[in-house]
Amino acid sequence: MENTIRTEIQDGYAILTLDRPDARNALNTGMLKQLAEALAHFDRDPEIRIVILTGADGNFASGADIGEVADKTAVDGVHDLRLHSWEAIAKVRKPLIAAVEGYCLGGGFELAQRCDLIVAAGNATFGQPEVRLGLIPGAGGVQRLATSIGKWRAMRMVLSGETITGHEAFEWGLVSHISAAGEALQTAREVAAKLVKGAPLAQQFAKQAVLAALDKPEGFDLERRSFELLLSTEDKAEGIAAFRVKRKPDFKGR
Questions:
Q1: How many whole angstroms separate alpha carbon 39 and alpha carbon 96?
Q2: One Pfam family, short name please (predicted)?
Q3: Dihedral (CA of 135, 138, 143, 149) sign
Q4: Is 107 a catalytic residue?
Q5: Within 13 Å and on the Cβ side, how many CA atoms surround 94?
Q6: How many Cα atoms occupy the beta-carbon half-sphere of 106 within 13 Å?
Q7: pLDDT for position 77
Q8: Domain range spanning residue 60?
Q9: In this predicted model, what pLDDT tens digit does every residue of 41-82 receive, in sequence order?
Q10: CA distance linking residue 94 with residue 208, whole number of Å
Q11: How far apart are CA 149 and CA 172, in angstroms?
Q12: Which residue of the set 56, 98, 130, 228 is catalytic?
């Protein structure tokens, strides 16, 4: 399997870099598996207090790997191996910081939203454009958006697939820190350096307490089941076909 995750250890924290630059770090099954395994490793390491996630070559992650999604059916979605990786990422106890430059779209945005803090460059691009492919987010993006920015802004993003900048995301309360272009990782390092001085167990319990107040299992289940059903629609096939040749899709509601 191609190695798509780079690791770096600092004083008390680790940096995991998504490294598929030719695909703008699109999340395929192998990358998600490697990421989940790396996070589980650092979650067990008592010397690591915080983990930073970032992307190579100026992008965080441009979304899911379209080549993997194109031929999936609803049945395939139920048995999708990526679900195990997403579940493993959700179980990480230690604080996670996303350092976002460039594109942070679709599954990449869902990954960033699974982090506990997001440091965004002002010119970063955030969005859940799945509706343009005849799909919806399937890894919790809708639920977390609604919690973070409220009904109206969440509807605005998921119904249209429109994107927003890092500055807009900060104004909306969608990210925790803003940085100048090219400085998101450095800012995340500074945040991590402060957090490693805290009490590790207290931080882990605090993280779980906040998540318990926000994450509602029934909402995530509905989102996932809806995503799986849409995989078998004609509109999904049309959306991906149009995306690949860069034309406007002709959706029929079938």
A1: 9
A2: ECH_1
A3: negative
A4: yes
A5: 26
A6: 22
A7: 57
A8: 5-181
A9: 999 999 999 999 999 999 999 988 777 776 666 666 565 777
A10: 9
A11: 6
A12: 130
Please check whether residue 213 lies inside any domain of the structure: no
In a domain, 56, yes or no: yes
- Asked, for residue 231, whether it belongs to a domain, the answer is no
Q: Catalytic pick from 102, 107, 141, 166? A: 107
Among 30, 61, 99, 110, which one carries the catalytic annotation? 110
Place of tokens 């008592």: 46
Structure tokens at 65: 């790997």
Query: Cα separations (Å) of 31 from 69, 82, 136, 148, 159?
Result: 15, 10, 21, 27, 28
What phi, psi does 34 have (nearest 5°)?
A: -65, -40
CATH number for the domain that contains residue 111: 3.90.226.10
Q: Which amino acid is located at 73 in the chain?
A: T
pLDDT tens-digit readout, 159-204? 999 999 999 999 999 999 999 999 999 999 999 999 999 999 999 9
What number is the average pLDDT over the span 204-210? 94
pLDDT at position 35 is 97
pTM (2 d.p.): 0.90
Domain tally, the chain? 1
Report if residue 103 sits inside a domain: yes
Catalytic status, residue 64 = yes
Q: Catalytic one among 23, 26, 56, 64? A: 64
Strand order in the sheet with 117-121: 5-9, 13-18, 50-55, 96-100, 117-121, 177-179
